[in-house]
Specification:
Shape: globular
Distance between the termini: 46 Å
CATH topology of the largest domain: 2-methylcitrate dehydratase PrpD
Number of helices: 13
Length: about 325
């Protein structure tokens, strides 16, 4: 089957007496024409890559821009000292989200789940729980299938790209995937899982994608934290019996519609939001500078790119109203 509806997956699973993750597994087997063993081995490799990315983090690396690096270690140390307001577990969750986001910015190996910019959300909730509750590897792999199935539905019905739908499509999708995986690991049924996914995604609806200087660093790394914490809150609410009044598929559809309505400045272009603040612009100038090159600007009026000459070349600039075609 095609993974294009949460309700359809749940209905099929009930009709055939299967678990949610099994439907996703069998779909992968069919689509990639692989055996059950091959599919599960691939997912196990993905889980182990996520674990390894966490275990090799030291906090010593810094991104090329110098904007991020070391924050995860600071959080780990803070939590280990017993100072974390949310307790040691929440401190580990926050630290893991920061560490993985930093690893991506520092060009380390990570698992895009569903994207590199949102790579910290799932490991932040899964790894601390895995260690704390000594969950079997097989169960973790099953939870990965749950998360991937949720991500596939979101990608089909809406989007998982910041350029297409803003940060809600990246961090929001990752948070929904993580919430569903958490519910599965804690023994929640399929309906509870759907409520958790819906609430996680609803909570981040409309989140802008506004990377400072166009880098997946600020505010991206720290937004992985809110995605992880939100996933835990949504899972706990659903497990407590709290339901989403809007069905999960409709929430996903709404996210897609909101993403299409977001202005281009808030969809990964670094033209709006935090990227357009005085500090954001100063960071961009420090990192990229003028470089003596002509700047490209998008004119909303005719949606065509024009070339503007730097200020020092103003004397050579075209007369007012003249357009120089981009090359």
């Amino acid at each position: 089957m095609n993974l294009n509806s949460m309700q359809e997956i749940v209905s099929l699973a009930r009709r055939e007496g299967k678990k949610f993750w099994e439907v996703v597994l069998e779909t992968d087997m069919e689509n990639r024409e692989v055996s059950r063993y091959e599919s599960m081995e691939k997912m196990a490799q993905t889980w182990h890559a996520m674990l390894e990315a966490s275990q090799v983090y030291t906090g010593e690396r810094r991104s090329a821009s110098g904007l991020v690096g070391g924050q995860g270690k600071l959080m780990y140390d803070y939590a280990a000292a017993g100072k974390c307001i949310g307790g040691e577990f929440m401190g580990q969750v926050i630290g893991e989200a920061l560490a993985m986001g930093e690893s991506n910015a520092c060009m380390r190996r990570i698992v895009a789940a569903p994207t590199a910019g949102a790579c910290g959300v799932m490991p932040a909730v899964l790894i601390p729980l895995y260690w704390r509750e000594n969950i079997p590897e097989e169960k973790m792999v099953e939870a990965m299938y749950v998360a991937s199935g949720i991500g596939a539905v979101i990608a089909y019905r809406a989007c998982i790209s910041g350029a297409a739908g803003g940060c809600q499509a990246e961090i929001g999708s990752a948070s929904a995937m993580a919430a569903g995986a958490l519910v599965y690991l804690k023994g929640g049924n399929k309906d509870v899982m759907c409520h958790a996914v819906a609430m996680a995604l609803k909570n981040l609806l409309g989140l802008a994608c506004d990377p400072v200087a166009g880098l997946v660093e600020v505010p991206c790394v720290k937004r992985n934290v809110i995605g992880a914490v939100n996933a835990i809150a949504a899972a706990d609410m659903a497990l407590a019996g709290i339901e989403s009044r809007i069905p999960v598929d409709e929430v996903i559809d709404a996210m897609g519609e909101v993403g299409r309505r977001l202005p281009v400045e808030l969809r990964e272009t670094a033209l709006g939001g935090l990227a357009a603040t005085p500090t954001g612009r100063a960071v961009k100038k420090r990192l990229h500078g003028n470089r003596g090159k002509k700047k490209r600007t998008l004119t909303i009026k005719d949606a065509r790119w024009k070339l503007e000459k730097p200020a020092e070349e103003a004397s050579e600039a075209p007369v007012e109203g003249e357009t120089v075609p981009a090359t």
